[in-house]
Amino acid sequence: MAAKKRSEMAVKHEFKSYRDITPMHVSLGNMLYNKTGAWRFIKPIYEDKAPACQNACPAGNDIEGWIKLLGRQEFEKAYWHLKREEPFPAILGRVCFKFCEGACNRGVFDDGIRIQELERFVGDRFSPATPHPELPAYNGKRLAVVGSGPAGMSAAYFARLLGFAVTIFDRETLPGGILRLGIPGYRLPRQVVAAEFEGLSRMGIDLKLGTEIGKDMALATLTETFDYVFLATGAHRSIPLQLTENLSCCRIISALFLLKQVARGETVSLGKEVVVIGGGNTAIDAARTAVRLGCRATVLYRRSPTEMPAHPDEVREAEEEGVCFRFLAAPEDIALRPDETIEKLVCCEMELGPADDSGRCRPLRKEGATFDIPADTILMAVGEEADMGYLSQFIASTDPILRTHEDLSVPFDTPAAARVFAGGDMTDTPHTVVHAVATGKKAAIAMDCNRRGIAFTDIQDHIRIGNGDALSFSRYMNWAPVNPVPCNDRMVVDSSKIVYDYFIKSPGCNKMVQPADQRRFSFAPYHDTLPEEQALLETRRCLHCGRCTECDNCLIFCPDVSILDQTRETFGYAIDYDYCKGCGICFTECPRHAMTMVSEG
Amino acid sequence: MQKKFEIPRQVLVEQDLMQPGITSCQGCAAPLSMKIALKALGERTVVVFPACCFAVFVGGYPYSSLKVPIIHCPFETSAVVASGAAAALSVRGEKDTVVMVWAGDGGTFDIGMQALSGAAERNENILFVCYDNEAYMNTGIQRSSATPMGAWTTTTPEGCIKEESKKDIEQIMLAHHISYMATASAAYPDDMFKKFQKARGISGMKFIHLLSACPPGWRIDPAHTIKIMRLATQTNVFPIYEVCKRPVSADTEQITEEWQYTINVFPEKNVPVGSYFKSQGRFGLMTDEMIQSTQKRVDRKWQELVEKAG
After folding, report:
1. What is the pLDDT of residues B78-91, one digit of tens each?
2. How far is the alpha carbon of A119 from chain B, nearest alpha carbon, in Å?
């Protein structure tokens, strides 16, 4: 508020008698006595909201916040702000499914912001081993995380920020789970994963490798020694193909198994022709790996390109590298030679039928329309499911998905006092890295709620972002947002709320990707981080949906001079409700919907 | 990235020659235009008000919400009162004080016309601003000669709309060979600010035609004032341009080259006029055929303007 209220500066004049009236009528006072605010029935307030990108991110990454800091060249602040909601920017800046970019409000205007490139730029600028500025003292509770994939890493990170003493167990000798074994090194270099674990250990998180729960150590041992256990053992068992007869042949292998073999540096021989069956990211990764091993790869998918679960960018890059795609086709039979090598794959053409439970069109077999594809190796990538053999004594069902409670606690009684939670691909969540990170965050918050003795479901709605499932760790911790104004995370700013007339069209930056004919022969990373100059240019394209940028639009357009500038002293503007008539022009003309009209009285 | 305002921030934040407390309707564009105009003209300004909305809501006797001297005058005399004020200032040697008439469309197109025409012909050193809300809004939405074809008013018979075109005030003013003529809209405050600053530096008769949305008279939501005024420009219904006098050398006799037209705001995309008309209740009785024929007329006028601007 201004130092002195304007209504106190009103000059009012009252004529005592007719003799007081001046011979020539001149004004003797101002109109400040007339508080036109009394006319108002709705009033504008400044209220930040959740941008569409943040709403789309399963982990609730405050993208606008760190892009704003990045634009101000406050790199270190941007890095730590990013890590408040999404702990591994260098990893997700490379391999995320980027739901945010698909939701970017700039997409309907000219070209969406390259959020992933920017996240990667921020993530690569600092080492994860930099001392964490917000590390608390231990709260006395111990957490065991089983599985060092993205879900386990995320749970360990957030739990440590909540004060838990964390130990991560993994059966492999190197940590990272699917990040190291499933995602090829040309997309996610191994040293990036290793650096994140260096960061986690600097935060005081213990890592016990080569320890398989259920084999080297019983789950009961964990539940006895720890207060909380988080299971995130992933989905590593490939779903077998549905063929007319069951075949076994050493050249029919799971795509994930191939990726693991390559990741471990084992030699594999695939022959010349490789057919990958499936349309997910594993299928694309396997096909691109096969191309790099010198094979000709064909991806067989039973639906059309629009239904494909793999990210369109990756499908495009695979196509550039020479991967062939055969849509609307499903395998039917595999013809073997007498020496048990594959002769060919017999496929059937499909057509799309009505939508199924997943909302996608159900593929239907076209009778009699079969064709052959030459194949030396067949890679199965029709999906992966969790192998929960180590839990067989607790759960009777053969359901390959661990169906947890709302707070991610497991649905069975645990052997000892410890509370057991689960997340990542083994639970009922889409199989992406960012969803795994989101479950890790959710479980950490749920465990802390349990420790504090409050119900997670009570707190969930207060820390939810937008209309999805994403939770805000900053809200849970009461960390201040970048803009020091009230923020209503539940309201989402979509493109219908943006006033595009105030923005200038400009194309997005180009990705630093090697040409396909160079990268297709090499397992080396082919995609470089943006240079600083380009990244800063890209930050300027952000519309900052729902977040005030002090652009002065409201100040200019107020017809009643009722918006007062306070940007020099604090942040933003103050509204002089003595005179604001509540016309709503400031609200309508706010380019980014950072204002709200609320009813009064 | 966002378009940056070119109004200097200090002027924007500090120089408020208009105070709140004015009794204009919610969402009225006239005080907004006045705010921007006074930011551009500065303290040394005298404002002359004929009868109009602004004369009422600026403050009843003995109050005024402007921090500059104002003169209220009878409806038809604004241009001549301003001429007198300008003459008086000239005699006193106050060359840096600008006299601005702030008249509605009634005080310009209809009732103020003869005094305006006289002042324009004499090339008086005044700035005549018409904030055009396209009807006699102050007295209750009566039809004026500025009301556009197709609009409803309280003085068009029930169920009827105005069938005559709006008077082409720009051409009338240019026919008087005045020094500067411009159109502006508060939806483009930068452009408006620059035009008032420019007008301040030109001697002789200046005329600025402002579009000024009136929520009750136009039957629109007060919050949509700026949006609809922006739409008026984006659909070319109200093109924003300025006309300066080009110095004519003695040996050429070509009158046609007297004017230098500049279009200041080009529409960003091709928006049909229907979206402007359909956004306002006053055009509710317009049929689709009328909108189509208006589209043709608007296109033709815009084409003429583009040709003139070269």
Report:
1. 999 999 999 999 99
2. 19
* Residue indicated by tokens 């380019």: A591
In 3D, which of B173, B152, B51 has the Cα closest to residue B102? B51
Calculate the average pLDDT of chain B.
92
DSSP β-ladder status, B259-265 and A48-51: unpaired
B1 chain-A contacts, CB cut-off 8 A: 503-504, 506, 540-541
CA distances from A443 to A155, A193, A411, A422, A453 (A): 7, 22, 14, 7, 15
Q: What is the 3-state secondary structure (H, E, C) of A247-260?
A: CCCCCEEEHHHHHH
Query: Which positions of chain A have pLDDT values less than 70?
Result: 1-4, 244-248, 415
B265 touches chain A (CB under 8 A): no
**Beta carbons of A557 and B230 less than 8 Å apart:** no
For residue A49, what are the β-bridge partners? Answer: A488
Q: How far apart are CA B260 and CA B246, in angstroms?
A: 6
Q: Which of residues 515-544 of A touch B (CB under 8 A)?
A: 540-541
Find where tokens 């439970």 sit. Answer: A357
Backbone angles phi, psi at A88, to 5 degrees: -125, 70
A166 bridge partner residues: A143
pLDDT in tens, A503-535: 999 998 888 888 888 888 889 999 999 999 999
B223 chain-A contacts, CB cut-off 8 A: 583-585, 587-588, 597
Q: Does A560 touch chain B (CB under 8 A)?
A: yes
Conformational region of residue B230, where left means phi above 0, alpha means psi within -120 to 50, and beta covers everything else: alpha
Q: Which string of DSSP letters, residue by residue, matches A59-116?
A: T---HHHHHHHHHTT-HHHHHHHHHHH-S-HHHHHHH---HHHHH-GGGGTS----HH
CB < 8 Å from B in window 5-34 of A: 6, 10, 13, 22, 25-34
Inter-chain CB proximity A585 and B22 less than 8 Å = no
Structure tokens at B177: 């060979």
For chain B, the structural domain boundaries read 28-247+256-309
Number of residues in chain A: 601
Distance from C-alpha of A334 to C-alpha of A344, rounded to nearest angstrom? 6
Closest of A223, B191, B175, B102 to residue B183, by C-alpha = B191
Q: What is the mean pLDDT of residues B84-110?
A: 95
Query: Domains of chain A (ranges plus CATH)?
Result: 142-236+386-453 (3.50.50.60), 240-376 (3.50.50.60)
State both tokens at B64. 């005024």
Predicted local confidence at residue A414, as pLDDT: 73
Closest residue to A560, CB basis, from B20, B189, B230? B20
Residue B12 contacts A, CB cutoff 8 Å: yes
The answer to whether the predicted template modeling score (pTM) of the entire model surpasses 0.80 is yes
Query: Long-range contact list for A550-553, CB < 8 A, 24+ apart?
Result: A551/A502, A551/A591, A551/B2, A552/B5, A552/B9, A552/B12, A553/A502, A553/A586, A553/A589, A553/A590, A553/A591
CB < 8 Å from A in window 28-47 of B: 28-32, 35-36
CB contact under 8 A, A6 and B19: yes
pLDDT in tens, A237-254: 888 877 766 666 778 889
The superfamily (CATH) of domain B28-247+256-309 is: Thiamin diphosphate (ThDP)-binding fold, Pyr/PP domains (3.40.50.970)
CB–CB contact A27 B61 (8 Å): yes
